[in-house]
Every structure is written in structure tokens, then in C-alpha cells.
């Protein structure tokens, strides 16, 4: 029996190598990405053991003493960590509530425009903020929201009796600044997936709807939006699973000592504890815990969105 298995196995190996060399162009494109993932996504998983050790820069992965779940117990008692969780959830939920449907609306509006220079202009203008880094956008916001900045100048010109204030120095304003600036930056880019899906809709659906007397709005609600159901579900799953994530670049640019009570999010807290203070074990434990919760949210959101797709998962 073993003698029969070995020839079959050798035949399969020869077929695999034959197919590999027949597709060498595609393999040349794929394997650099596979190697990149192995090096930067899979090998670092071993570093998660730091969360269960008392690791310092003087130790190695083997010599650092095991402390079990001590780091996680410290997390549960850490007031500053829970403050960062509250800030992260508040900002993320506001982004979902205000920003999730805007790319859908904008994509439908762009799709309904006739082909021409105006449509291309609208797309270009909406995409442009995405290609500016948060360093650039942060500098613009810091300038615009200063005491002599654009916002105070516009409000004064409109006749509002305002005190010249720096809005970024107020912790109470930070949530709205972070949410609205993120929406401004990402809404246009978020339309790309929706527009790609809309471009594949069979035009005969709309022609038949016109013959039946459907209005433009009825065509949107009965044809366009149902066709977007799958991609909306996928984006919703990814958005919900990322609720505990946050934009570190945005936070590091806009955060200062005055607004830190509202600006400190989980990612910036992990960065501060791990890089600035050198507590690598604690920072790794926080990151591991957040990753586990994010996976749980991913599974829950997937089950929720199945109802939008006739009990079919989009993942």
C-alpha cells in the first residue's frame, strides 16, 4: 500500500511543479507578497508571548521571566487605559453614525450624474483629501482652528459675536474635530468600492424600470441600493470589527496636553506605554486583548449582517 501511495504523491508533486512553472509570471507576482506576509505578519506572532512575560530591553525573549496574566490584571485596574477605551468608542461610534452612510449617498449621487467633465471634477475633488497625509491635514486644521485661524475669521465675518479661541485646546471640542476631519478625509475615497459595484449593474434593469414608469428615486431605492447590499454588509462588518481601533496618525497630530483627556485613544496609549515608557509587556498585553475583542466583534457583526443577505455570509 505504501508503494502505491508514494508514486501518487510523486505524481502530485510533479504536477504541482509543472503548473508552477507554467504560471511563473503569476507566481512571480504572488510570492513576494506571500513572503512579506510570512515575515511581517506571521513570524511576529511569536512576540505575543511578551504579554505573558516581564520583558525589558535588557532581556531576550527566552530570558524574560514568565508572569502569567499579571499584565492583564494590571490592565483591568488601569484608569488611564479605560479612559482611552471610552474615548476610542466615542470617536468610533460617532464616525460610524455620521460617516458610514455618507460614502454610499455620495457614490449614488455621482453614479446618477451623466458622464462628463463635471462628474470627473466631483470625483477628483472628493478623492483629493485622502491623498494628503495627516501631517499635512493636521497642520491645516491646527492653523484653521487657531485663535486667528480661518474658522474664527469666517464666524466673525458672518457677524457672530465670538471670543477668539483655539478650538484644539479645548477637550470638549476634540470628539467633533476628530470625527468631522476623518469624514472629510475619507468619504470621497470610500465611494470607490460602491462605484465599482454600481458600474457592473446591467443597464437593462433601469430601462425596464423606466418603461414601467418608475421615477428616478424609485430606481435608486428598488435597483441601485439593493445591488449595493453585499458591499454595504462587508463594509459594515469591517467597520464594527474595527470599533476599538483608531487613527493613530490623526491622534498624534491633533493631540496636545489640553485636549489629551478626550484625545487619548487605545492606539496612542499603547504607543506611549510601549515606545515612550518602555513597558513592552504591558503594551503587548493591551494590543493582544484589543485584537481578541476585535475578532469577537467581527464574528458578531458577520452574524448580524447575514440577515441582509438571506443568511449568506459575505466573508
TrEMBL record:
Q: Provide the protein's localization.
A: Cell membrane
UniProt KW Cell membrane keyword: yes
Protein name, per record: ABC transporter permease subunit
Sequence intervals crossing the membrane: 29-52, 85-111, 131-160, 226-245, 280-300
Q: Which domain of life is it from?
A: Bacteria
* Domain ABC transmembrane type-1 residues, every copy: 85-301
The protein's matches in CDD domains, at most eight in alphabetical order, are given as:
TM_PBP2 (cd06261)
Keywords for the protein's UniProt record, in alphabetical order:
Cell membrane, Membrane, Transmembrane, Transmembrane helix, Transport
Q: Tell me the organism.
A: Fundicoccus culcitae
Q: Entry's PROSITE patterns?
A: ABC_TM1
Gene3D superfamilies attached to this UniProt entry: MetI-like (1.10.3720.10)
How does the record classify its membrane topology? Multi-pass membrane protein
Task: Please report which protein family the annotation says this sequence is part of.
Answer: Belongs to the binding-protein-dependent transport system permease family.
Amino acid at each position: 500500500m505504501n508503494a502505491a501511495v508514494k508514486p501518487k504523491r510523486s505524481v502530485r508533486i510533479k504536477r504541482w511543479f509543472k503548473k508552477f512553472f507554467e504560471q511563473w509570471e503569476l507566481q512571480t507576482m504572488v510570492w513576494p507578497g506571500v513572503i512579506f506576509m510570512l515575515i511581517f505578519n506571521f513570524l511576529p506572532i511569536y512576540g505575543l508571548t511578551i504579554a505573558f512575560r516581564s520583558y525589558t530591553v535588557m532581556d531576550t525573549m527566552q530570558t524574560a521571566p514568565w508572569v502569567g496574566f499579571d499584565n492583564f490584571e494590571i490592565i483591568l485596574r488601569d484608569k488611564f487605559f479605560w479612559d482611552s477605551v471610552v474615548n476610542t468608542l466615542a470617536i468610533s461610534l460617532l464616525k460610524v453614525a455620521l460617516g458610514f452612510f455618507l460614502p454610499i449617498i455620495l457614490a449614488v449621487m455621482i453614479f446618477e450624474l451623466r458622464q462628463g467633465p463635471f462628474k470627473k471634477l466631483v470625483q477628483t475633488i472628493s478623492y483629493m483629501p485622502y491623498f494628503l497625509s495627516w501631517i499635512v491635514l493636521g497642520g491645516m486644521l491646527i492653523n484653521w482652528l487657531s485663535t486667528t485661524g480661518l474658522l474664527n475669521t469666517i464666524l466673525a465675518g458672518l457677524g457672530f459675536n465670538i471670543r477668539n479661541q483655539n478650538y484644539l485646546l479645548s477637550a470638549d471640542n476634540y470628539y467633533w474635530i476628530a470625527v468631522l476631519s476623518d469624514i472629510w478625509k475619507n468619504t470621497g475615497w470610500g465611494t470607490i468600492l460602491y462605484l465599482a459595484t454600481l458600474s457592473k449593474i446591467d443597464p437593462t434593469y433601469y430601462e425596464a424600470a423606466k418603461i414601467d414608469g418608475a421615477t428616478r428615486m424609485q430606481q435608486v431605492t428598488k435597483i441601485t441600493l439593493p445591488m449595493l447590499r453585499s458591499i454595504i454588509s462587508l463594509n459594515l462588518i469591517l467597520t464594527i470589527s474595527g470599533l476599538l481601533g483608531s487613527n493613530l496618525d490623526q491622534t498624534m497630530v491633533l493631540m496636545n496636553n489640553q485636549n489629551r483627556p478626550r484625545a487619548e485613544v487605545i492606539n496612542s496609549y499603547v504607543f506611549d506605554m510601549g515606545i515612550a515608557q518602555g513597558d513592552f509587556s504591558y503594551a503587548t498585553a493591551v494590543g493582544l486583548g484589543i485584537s481578541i475583542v476585535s475578532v469577537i466583534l467581527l464574528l458578531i457583526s458577520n452574524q448580524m449582517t447575514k440577515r441582509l443577505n438571506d443568511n449568506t455570509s459575505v466573508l
